[in-house]
Specification:
By secondary structure, this protein is an alpha+beta fold. The protein is built from four helices and seven strands. It is globular and about 40 Å long.
């Protein structure tokens, strides 16, 4: 396996292809509440997206958007099932954080499900701490919000 990272946008067809798989896993396999969360997972026109390839095949994605003048919000992290457990999600997260630092951001926030122990552990190991749910996630008991200082 030969992995490479591509910085791109959320309009990239390979990014869109993996978003379809991510949404299918959320809504069908994991039975997450689509009606509540789908509206917050849209990422049109984001210029800061990552795709990781195994040779020519896209296997992982993630992106960030500006949350405020010094903070980004990590969105749409996903790794194909066959590639999980190989450190690829950590690579996506590291690349997104590095890109955010290059663009002058100091903090990163994100939201995940209370049910996604693997994701929560990844973020905690990367230095994220649980914070009070922000904005649209306030009052959503199934959400866990986290924050990290990037610099």
């Amino acid at each position: 396996m030969s992995f490479n990272i591509k910085r791109t946008t959320t309009a990239d067809p390979d990014f869109a292809q993996l978003v379809v798989k991510l949404d299918h896993e959320f809504w069908v396999e994991l039975e997450e509440d689509m009606n509540t969360y789908e509206q917050y997972n849209k990422v049109p026109d984001i210029k800061t997206a990552i795709i990781i390839y195994d040779d020519e095949m896209p296997v992982a994605i993630g992106c960030y958007k500006e949350y405020n003048s010094n903070t980004v919000e990590i969105k749409r992290m996903f790794v194909e099932k066959a590639y999980r457990g190989k450190g690829i999600a950590k690579s996506v997260l590291n690349e997104l954080e590095q890109w955010a630092i290059e663009n002058g951001f100091e903090y990163s926030v994100l939201e995940t499900s209370i049910h996604f122990d693997v994701a929560k552990n990844l973020y905690k190991q990367a230095g994220y701490v649980v914070i009070t749910n922000y904005d649209q996630y306030k009052g959503l008991d199934e959400s866990v919000c986290m924050k990290k200082e990037l610099v």
